[in-house]
Specification:
Layout (H helix, E strand, L loop, with lengths): L2 E6 L3 E6 L10 E6 L7 H13 L4 E7 H4 L9 H12 L3 E7 L20 H15 L5 E4 L15 H18 L4 E7 L11 H10 L8 E4 L19 H11 L6 E4 L15 H16 L7 E3 L27 H15 L2
Parallel strand pairs: 3-4, 3-10, 4-5, 5-6, 6-7, 7-8, 8-9
Antiparallel strand pairs: 1-2
Helix pairs in contact: 1-3, 4-5, 6-7, 8-9
Length: about 350
């Protein structure tokens, strides 16, 4: 792998690996999202080593506009620089989530914080800035996170508005990084209930709006917990993979890949949490199923390490590692399947 001098952070030259133009779009990834942005240098390095130890070759990280440019015109890339630099130093490919809005770019002044949808043209300029900065380190760009649910796309999910954001992002990537890949933001488990939009409905509407030219792949979050992925329940969101694949194939997008950019299960004592052995079974069974699907991958496990110590809080307990870095049974299940996922289909 070639090496080059790049300028990141405060402008100090650092040694960084150049992006391989032929990235293998298969394998295992770890979704760390926002948490990696605030770690100390030592802790970040430790976690990137943990990603490699799990057999992963990818990370998924937030590129949080609301932090980078909280005040219009004053950009601070230092947090994202550190994560990208660390990932590349450990030989990891990066999937960047272009997401979240600063106060001055939000369409709605009401509640919702940085999850409020931004003005599309302003978002497009942010994407252009991000691609310009990282085009030698990142080739894959996921547009927003879970845009089909109110909790991540306020005040309400809106496919037409999201299509505008997607188009702006695609235009920025196509212009500044020929060969860069644009992903529809990872779709959350949801039903059509007036507040959220089911993933299959969301994708059908995107196609109806003519958005197919603006994306190279579709990301989805096929969580099944507390059930196993093989459960026949209608509410089992793992089935969204086959539903969306069928829509893509029916629209002629048979060669486009479907990226599961979050998959896992929380342990602990909270509602819908599972015990550690069931977490391992969910991950093992789900990864086996996804490895057998055509045009899948990479597959991103959420997440590496528990985010906190509250056993009742689901978000604190998705890790394959406990807070003291001891391994839950899930880690062995994931590690055992990493090579099969790398072989891909």
């Amino acid at each position: 792998m070639a090496l080059t001098l790049t300028l990141l952070g405060c402008g100090t030259p650092t040694m960084s690996t150049v992006l391989d133009e032929r990235v293998n779009e298969t394998g295992l990834g770890i979704a760390g999202g926002h948490s990696w942005l605030t770690l100390s240098t030592g802790e970040l390095d430790r976690q990137m080593k943990g990603v490699v130890d799990a057999g992963a070759t990818w990370i998924r990280m937030d590129m949080d506009w609301s932090l980078i440019e909280h005040d219009r015109g004053r950009k601070d890339w230092s947090m994202t620089d550190r994560v990208v630099r660390s990932a590349r130093a450990h030989g990891l490919h990066v999937l960047a989530i272009l997401t979240y809005s600063p106060p001055w770019a939000r369409q709605d002044p009401g509640p919702g914080g940085n999850k409020v949808a931004p003005y599309p043209a302003l978002f497009g300029q942010f994407v252009a800035d991000a691609v310009e900065r990282y085009r030698d380190q990142i080739k894959h760009w996921e547009v927003w996170n879970e845009p089909n649910v109110t909790s991540f796309f306020a005040p309400l999910p809106h496919v037409g508005l999201y299509a505008q954001l997607l188009h702006q992002a695609a235009t920025a990537v196509r212009t500044r990084q020929p060969g860069g890949q644009v992903l529809v933001g990872g779709l959350a488990p949801a039903a059509d209930n007036g507040r959220d939009i089911a993933p299959s409905t969301f994708i059908e509407r995107l196609y109806a709006l003519g958005s197919a030219l603006d994306f190279d792949a579709i990301a989805v979050h096929p969580y099944s917990y507390p059930e196993l992925p093989s459960s026949p329940s209608r509410d089992n969101a793992f089935q969204n993979l086959t539903r969306i694949r069928a829509i893509m194939d029916a629209r002629g997008d048979t060669s486009k890949r479907l990226w599961p950019t979050e998959f896992g299960a929380p342990t602990g004592t909270g509602a819908r949490a599972v015990d550690e052995q069931t977490q391992a079974e969910i991950l093992g069974g789900g990864l086996d199923s996804m490895a057998a699907m055509p045009n899948i991958g990479p597959v991103f496990v959420y997440s590496l390490i528990d985010a906190g110590d509250d056993r009742q809080n689901l978000e604190d307990n998705f890790g394959m590692l406990r807070r003291d870095y001891s391994a839950k049974p899930a880690l062995a299940q994931v590690r055992a399947r990493a090579e099969v996922l790398r072989a891909g289909q």
